[in-house]
Design brief:
This protein is an alpha+beta fold. It has helices spanning about 1-35, 105-130; strands at about 40-50, 55-60, 65-70, 85-90, 95-100. The mean pLDDT is about 85.
């Protein structure tokens, strides 16, 4: 019976380490996407010109020149004519990204926290059931 208890503990420690890994890697990628990918870029408003099943095409103006770009994202809040915020490279304005989608990556560290919490609860149950001295 004690061997099964050790397996139980080791499984939750493994899950906890995986959750910690997901959290740290997710946090690093989130920081990269949220901070470094927009560093040195400027923002402007773009107008949605067309929406397909998996893409959205927008037009925006930089220094009097009109640019159009297809983004492979879609949202239920998008409609033709809607203005959205984008970030563009001032040296190459045709390189741009939608501002709102960059916060979507925060889901990854949140999943890591959930995994850590669930495995922590499992270890607490293990401790309460098998390790804590009986009263």
């Amino acid at each position: 019976m004690f061997i099964e208890n050790e397996k139980f503990r080791n499984i939750f420690i493994g899950i906890m380490l995986f959750g910690l890994f997901v959290f740290i890697v997710g946090l690093a990628f989130s920081f990269k996407v949220i901070y470094w990918d927009v560093r040195g870029k400027e923002s402007t408003k773009a107008t949605i010109t067309s929406i397909n099943n998996n893409s959205t095409t927008c037009e925006y103006i930089v220094n009097g020149k009109k640019y159009a770009k297809k983004y492979f994202v879609n949202s239920s809040t998008y409609y033709v004519g809607k203005k959205i915020k984008i970030y563009y490279n001032p040296i190459r304005p045709q390189k741009s990204s939608i501002a709102l989608m960059r916060y979507f990556i925060l889901i990854v560290p949140f999943i890591g926290i959930l995994i850590l919490g669930i495995s922590g609860i499992g270890l607490i149950i293990y401790y309460m059931k098998y390790i804590r001295p009986k009263m």
